[in-house]
Amino acid sequence: MQLLDKNKPIHRIAYNEAYQFWQAEWNIAIEEMGLEGLSVKISDKFIAADEILVLRQGTEIVALALINYLNFNIHAYKDLSYFKVMTEESKAFIFNNGYSKIMTSTYNIVGKQYRRVKVGNTILAIALPGAALKIFEYQPELDLCLGMPLIPSANQRTLSRLGMTNLPGGLITIHNVQAQFMYVNQGKVNLGKYDVGVSSLFANNLIAA
Question: How many domains does the structure of the chain reveal?
Fold first, then answer.
Protein backbone atom coordinates (compact mmCIF):
# COMPACT_ATOMS: atom_id res chain seq x y z
CA MET A 1 0.00 0.00 0.00
CA GLN A 2 1.15 3.51 -0.76
CA LEU A 3 0.05 7.02 0.16
CA LEU A 4 1.31 9.30 -2.58
CA ASP A 5 1.98 13.02 -2.26
CA LYS A 6 2.59 14.90 -5.51
CA ASN A 7 4.88 17.33 -3.68
CA LYS A 8 7.37 14.62 -2.73
CA PRO A 9 9.90 13.99 -5.53
CA ILE A 10 10.30 10.35 -4.40
CA HIS A 11 6.62 9.77 -5.28
CA ARG A 12 6.68 11.39 -8.72
CA ILE A 13 6.94 8.24 -10.87
CA ALA A 14 4.30 6.38 -8.83
CA TYR A 15 2.06 9.46 -8.89
CA ASN A 16 2.14 9.60 -12.68
CA GLU A 17 1.42 5.86 -12.86
CA ALA A 18 -1.54 6.37 -10.54
CA TYR A 19 -2.92 9.14 -12.75
CA GLN A 20 -2.77 6.91 -15.83
CA PHE A 21 -4.55 4.12 -13.92
CA TRP A 22 -7.19 6.54 -12.62
CA GLN A 23 -7.96 7.85 -16.10
CA ALA A 24 -8.07 4.43 -17.74
CA GLU A 25 -10.23 2.73 -15.12
CA TRP A 26 -12.63 5.61 -14.63
CA ASN A 27 -13.18 5.79 -18.38
CA ILE A 28 -14.31 2.15 -18.17
CA ALA A 29 -16.55 2.88 -15.17
CA ILE A 30 -18.10 5.93 -16.84
CA GLU A 31 -19.13 3.81 -19.81
CA GLU A 32 -20.33 0.86 -17.71
CA MET A 33 -22.52 2.98 -15.41
CA GLY A 34 -23.65 5.46 -18.05
CA LEU A 35 -22.32 8.45 -16.12
CA GLU A 36 -23.16 11.72 -17.86
CA GLY A 37 -21.09 14.89 -17.66
CA LEU A 38 -18.14 13.23 -15.92
CA SER A 39 -14.76 13.33 -17.62
CA VAL A 40 -11.41 12.19 -16.29
CA LYS A 41 -9.69 13.93 -19.18
CA ILE A 42 -9.83 16.92 -16.82
CA SER A 43 -7.33 16.36 -14.01
CA ASP A 44 -8.65 18.89 -11.44
CA LYS A 45 -10.03 16.35 -8.96
CA PHE A 46 -6.95 14.15 -9.13
CA ILE A 47 -4.38 16.91 -8.79
CA ALA A 48 -6.35 18.58 -5.98
CA ALA A 49 -6.27 15.47 -3.78
CA ASP A 50 -4.10 15.75 -0.68
CA GLU A 51 -3.04 12.11 -1.00
CA ILE A 52 -3.54 9.23 -3.40
CA LEU A 53 -4.16 5.88 -1.73
CA VAL A 54 -2.77 3.14 -3.97
CA LEU A 55 -3.01 -0.64 -3.67
CA ARG A 56 -0.77 -2.87 -5.80
CA GLN A 57 -0.45 -6.49 -6.79
CA GLY A 58 3.27 -6.92 -7.27
CA THR A 59 4.32 -3.82 -9.19
CA GLU A 60 0.91 -3.22 -10.80
CA ILE A 61 -1.57 -0.68 -9.45
CA VAL A 62 -4.88 -2.45 -8.89
CA ALA A 63 -6.94 0.11 -6.96
CA LEU A 64 -6.80 3.69 -5.74
CA ALA A 65 -8.72 6.43 -3.96
CA LEU A 66 -8.36 10.21 -3.67
CA ILE A 67 -7.97 11.38 -0.07
CA ASN A 68 -8.71 14.95 1.03
CA TYR A 69 -8.59 16.66 4.41
CA LEU A 70 -11.04 19.50 5.06
CA ASN A 71 -10.79 22.02 7.88
CA PHE A 72 -13.96 24.03 8.53
CA ASN A 73 -11.95 26.58 10.47
CA ILE A 74 -11.08 27.71 6.94
CA HIS A 75 -14.49 28.88 5.79
CA ALA A 76 -13.86 28.33 2.07
CA TYR A 77 -13.98 24.55 2.62
CA LYS A 78 -17.73 24.78 3.25
CA ASP A 79 -18.22 26.09 -0.29
CA LEU A 80 -16.56 23.17 -2.04
CA SER A 81 -18.51 21.70 -4.94
CA TYR A 82 -18.51 18.42 -2.97
CA PHE A 83 -21.09 19.90 -0.57
CA LYS A 84 -23.16 21.70 -3.23
CA VAL A 85 -24.70 18.42 -4.45
CA MET A 86 -25.79 17.38 -0.95
CA THR A 87 -29.38 17.68 0.25
CA GLU A 88 -30.09 20.44 2.75
CA GLU A 89 -30.57 17.82 5.48
CA SER A 90 -27.16 16.32 4.79
CA LYS A 91 -25.46 19.72 4.87
CA ALA A 92 -27.25 20.67 8.10
CA PHE A 93 -26.07 17.44 9.73
CA ILE A 94 -22.44 18.18 8.84
CA PHE A 95 -22.37 21.93 9.38
CA ASN A 96 -24.47 22.09 12.56
CA ASN A 97 -22.92 19.29 14.62
CA GLY A 98 -19.60 20.89 15.48
CA TYR A 99 -17.46 18.91 13.05
CA SER A 100 -14.35 20.85 12.07
CA LYS A 101 -11.89 18.35 10.57
CA ILE A 102 -13.17 15.95 7.93
CA MET A 103 -11.57 13.38 5.64
CA THR A 104 -13.12 12.44 2.32
CA SER A 105 -12.35 9.42 0.15
CA THR A 106 -13.50 9.98 -3.43
CA TYR A 107 -13.17 8.48 -6.91
CA ASN A 108 -12.47 5.06 -5.40
CA ILE A 109 -11.74 2.65 -8.26
CA VAL A 110 -10.67 -0.98 -8.52
CA GLY A 111 -9.22 -2.03 -11.88
CA LYS A 112 -11.79 -3.98 -13.90
CA GLN A 113 -9.55 -7.02 -14.28
CA TYR A 114 -8.80 -7.04 -10.54
CA ARG A 115 -12.32 -6.83 -9.10
CA ARG A 116 -12.21 -10.40 -7.78
CA VAL A 117 -8.55 -10.23 -6.72
CA LYS A 118 -7.55 -10.31 -3.05
CA VAL A 119 -4.81 -8.32 -1.37
CA GLY A 120 -3.73 -10.45 1.55
CA ASN A 121 -6.96 -12.25 2.41
CA THR A 122 -9.31 -9.38 1.55
CA ILE A 123 -11.00 -8.76 -1.77
CA LEU A 124 -9.94 -5.41 -3.26
CA ALA A 125 -13.48 -3.99 -3.29
CA ILE A 126 -13.37 -4.19 0.52
CA ALA A 127 -9.64 -3.63 1.09
CA LEU A 128 -9.66 -0.23 -0.67
CA PRO A 129 -12.38 1.50 1.39
CA GLY A 130 -11.17 -0.41 4.45
CA ALA A 131 -7.69 1.05 4.04
CA ALA A 132 -9.17 4.54 3.64
CA LEU A 133 -11.11 4.09 6.88
CA LYS A 134 -7.96 2.92 8.65
CA ILE A 135 -6.15 6.07 7.48
CA PHE A 136 -8.99 8.05 9.05
CA GLU A 137 -8.92 5.99 12.25
CA TYR A 138 -5.16 6.48 12.64
CA GLN A 139 -5.64 10.28 12.76
CA PRO A 140 -7.63 10.95 15.96
CA GLU A 141 -7.69 14.70 15.32
CA LEU A 142 -10.17 14.06 12.50
CA ASP A 143 -13.87 14.19 13.41
CA LEU A 144 -15.66 12.64 10.46
CA CYS A 145 -15.03 10.55 7.33
CA LEU A 146 -17.29 11.01 4.29
CA GLY A 147 -17.87 9.00 1.14
CA MET A 148 -20.33 9.21 -1.73
CA PRO A 149 -20.80 5.79 -3.36
CA LEU A 150 -22.67 5.59 -6.64
CA ILE A 151 -25.66 3.26 -6.33
CA PRO A 152 -24.97 1.39 -9.64
CA SER A 153 -21.59 0.35 -8.22
CA ALA A 154 -23.25 -1.17 -5.10
CA ASN A 155 -20.37 0.24 -3.04
CA GLN A 156 -22.84 1.60 -0.49
CA ARG A 157 -23.35 -1.99 0.66
CA THR A 158 -19.63 -2.42 1.20
CA LEU A 159 -19.33 0.82 3.17
CA SER A 160 -22.26 -0.21 5.34
CA ARG A 161 -20.49 -3.49 6.15
CA LEU A 162 -17.45 -1.43 7.19
CA GLY A 163 -19.43 0.67 9.67
CA MET A 164 -20.46 3.70 7.61
CA THR A 165 -23.99 5.12 7.86
CA ASN A 166 -26.20 7.01 5.40
CA LEU A 167 -26.28 10.76 5.92
CA PRO A 168 -29.78 12.14 6.56
CA GLY A 169 -31.49 13.48 3.46
CA GLY A 170 -31.62 10.40 1.27
CA LEU A 171 -30.28 9.78 -2.20
CA ILE A 172 -29.03 12.40 -4.62
CA THR A 173 -28.74 12.27 -8.40
CA ILE A 174 -25.35 13.05 -9.92
CA HIS A 175 -24.10 12.36 -13.44
CA ASN A 176 -27.54 10.87 -14.14
CA VAL A 177 -27.24 8.13 -11.50
CA GLN A 178 -28.21 7.92 -7.85
CA ALA A 179 -25.65 8.26 -5.07
CA GLN A 180 -25.68 8.17 -1.28
CA PHE A 181 -23.50 10.26 1.02
CA MET A 182 -22.26 8.15 3.93
CA TYR A 183 -20.29 8.93 7.08
CA VAL A 184 -18.56 7.52 10.12
CA ASN A 185 -17.48 9.37 13.26
CA GLN A 186 -14.04 9.09 14.75
CA GLY A 187 -13.93 6.18 17.16
CA LYS A 188 -16.77 4.38 15.35
CA VAL A 189 -14.87 2.64 12.54
CA ASN A 190 -15.67 -1.07 12.68
CA LEU A 191 -14.21 -3.24 9.94
CA GLY A 192 -15.40 -6.40 11.68
CA LYS A 193 -13.97 -9.57 10.19
CA TYR A 194 -11.98 -7.52 7.66
CA ASP A 195 -10.01 -5.60 10.29
CA VAL A 196 -7.06 -7.99 10.51
CA GLY A 197 -6.62 -8.23 6.75
CA VAL A 198 -6.85 -4.49 6.18
CA SER A 199 -4.61 -3.70 9.16
CA SER A 200 -1.95 -6.01 7.74
CA LEU A 201 -1.50 -3.56 4.86
CA PHE A 202 -0.21 -1.08 7.42
CA ALA A 203 1.60 -3.55 9.69
CA ASN A 204 3.72 -4.76 6.76
CA ASN A 205 5.12 -1.25 6.31
CA LEU A 206 4.00 -1.03 2.71
CA ILE A 207 3.16 2.67 2.87
CA ALA A 208 5.51 4.75 0.74
CA ALA A 209 7.75 7.13 2.66
Answer: 1
* pLDDT per position as a tens digit, 146-186: 999 998 888 999 999 999 999 999 898 889 889 999 999 99
In the predicted model, is pLDDT for residue 205 greater than 50? no
Residue 169, Cβ density class (10 Å: 0-12 exposed, 13-18 middle, ≥19 buried): middle
Q: Does pTM surpass 0.90? A: yes
* 209 in a structural domain: no
Tell me how far the alpha carbon of residue 200 is from its chain's centroid. Answer: 19
Instruction: Give long-range contacts, CB 8 A cutoff, 24+ apart: 193-200.
Output: 194/122, 194/126, 194/127, 194/130, 194/161, 194/162, 195/130, 197/120, 197/121, 197/122, 197/127, 197/130, 198/122, 198/126, 198/127, 198/130, 198/131, 198/133, 198/134, 199/134, 200/120
